[in-house]
Specification:
Strand content: 5-15%
Order of helices and strands: EEEHEHEHHEHHEHEHHEEHHHH
Bound molecules: iron/sulfur cluster
Number of helices: 13
Helix content: 40-55%
Number of strands: 10
Oligomer: single chain
Strand order of the largest sheet: 1-4-5-6-7-8-9-10
Structural class: alpha/beta
Largest sheet: 8 strands, mixed
Distance between the termini: 19 Å
Radius of gyration: 21 Å
Length: 354
């Protein structure tokens, strides 16, 4: 498929939930850019785009597309670094040129949000900013420090509570498996990661909690630590055990979503607290599987992302005997070619996920 060059500037990423949104770029790259687990903007310098250029882009987008969008996303990694009155001007121009847009969202860093006053956040909400996506990643301070996140749990609580109070909807992201096999402060990090993350989420009670699973790739500073043996990735079962402890410890009224292909169980989603038991029981069923069955499920799930057959599009499909047998046959063939090939293929496909 040929890409059509747009007459306005667009940044490299947006959340999956913004796939159909108008993208408006107010800054380039990330002003922090130091997180160990993040390859997105490495090597790229942060820049604020001149306000005039951004407003002109909105005009160009309106002339080019017409008023066809219902949602808009403001890029890149931390749009709230803009002065509040500048961002208000961007939101006003968006409203003026795209009257059908009903939702405007953006990524932001917790540190930047914490620096804004409640009054400023209310102003942004009134101007049309509907939702902020913020990477909490973990609520465990030693792990945040190890990953060079540049925030503390307290700072995220401060910023997050302010966002909720301002009326802006809040989506917080958590990285499953972030602690790997670490033993920070002499204790198993995965457990503290789950418990402290739940504590922070309970304090903030965001509208949405979204989980992503750590997948280490070249280009991340953490990759060097993986190669040197300093950092060890946790297994699929360990990640699900961690997710189980996290959900079990939540006392929120948030919507929990596991809508990312890096996650082992995409079926874990629902409104808390009412869907908690169903989510826990799905995870229990997964944790009862043998190692071979867990590999079978992961490989079959990965096949679905890459368009290979046979595959599983959900955990419930794993219970269909014919599907499971078909994936088992593929695994047996791979193992006959070379012992360990199925596990290596799963790891390779995992790294290819975006
Ligand atoms: S995770 Fe977010 S804050 Fe950290 S480097 Fe990546 S884009 Fe920047």
């Amino acid at each position: 498929m040929a890409f059509v060059a747009l007459p306005y500037e667009v940044g490299p990423i947006r959340p999956p939930s913004e796939a159909a949104s108008l993208l408006i770029r107010v800054t380039r790259n990330c002003p922090w850019n130091k997180c160990e687990f993040c390859p997105t903007y490495k090597g790229a310098r942060f820049e604020r785009r001149p306000l005039e250029d951004v407003l002109q882009d909105i005009d160009r987008a309106a002339d080019y597309h017409g008023d066809i969008f219902q949602t808009a996303f403001i890029q890149d990694a931390n749009s709230l670094v803009l002065k509040t009155d500048e961002l208000v001007q961007v939101l006003n121009r968006l409203k003026e040129r795209f009257p059908s847009v009903r939702r405007v969202t953006s990524y932001a860093r917790a540190r930047t949000v914490a620096r804004k006053s409640l009054e400023e956040l209310r102003q942004l909400h009134e101007a049309g900013l509907s939702r902020l996506h913020i990477g909490l990643e973990s609520g465990y301070d030693p792990l945040l420090e190890y990953m060079n996140k540049g925030v503390t749990a307290d700072l995220v609580i401060e910023g997050g509570k302010k966002v909720v109070e301002s009326g802006i909807s809040l989506c917080l992201y958590v990285v499953l498996g972030l602690g790997g096999g670490l033993r920070l402060e002499g204790e198993e990090t995965w457990r503290n990661h789950a418990l402290h993350t739940a504590r922070v989420l309970n304090e903030i009670n965001p509208d949405y909690i979204r989980v992503r699973t750590l997948t280490i790739k070249q280009g991340m500073p953490l990759y060097e630590k993986l190669v040197s043996g300093e950092f060890e990735e946790s297994s699929g079962a360990e990640k699900v055990r961690e997710e189980r402890l996290l959900i079990q410890s939540l006392e929120v009224t948030s919507y929990f979503a596991s809508d990312h292909s890096t996650n082992i169980l995409m079926d874990i989603r629902g409104q808390l607290p009412q869907d908690k038991e169903a989510m826990l029981s799905t995870m229990d069923r997964y944790l009862e599987l043998t190692e071979g069955e867990q590999l079978n499920f992961r490989l079959g799930t990965l096949f679905s992302y890459f368009g290979y057959e046979p595959n599983y599009r959900s955990f419930s499909e794993f219970s269909v005997p014919a599907r499971r047998e078909a994936v088992t046959t593929v695994i047996e063939q791979l193992e006959q070619e070379e012992p360990g090939k199925a596990r290596r293929l799963a790891a390779e496909l995992n790294r290819m996920l975006i």
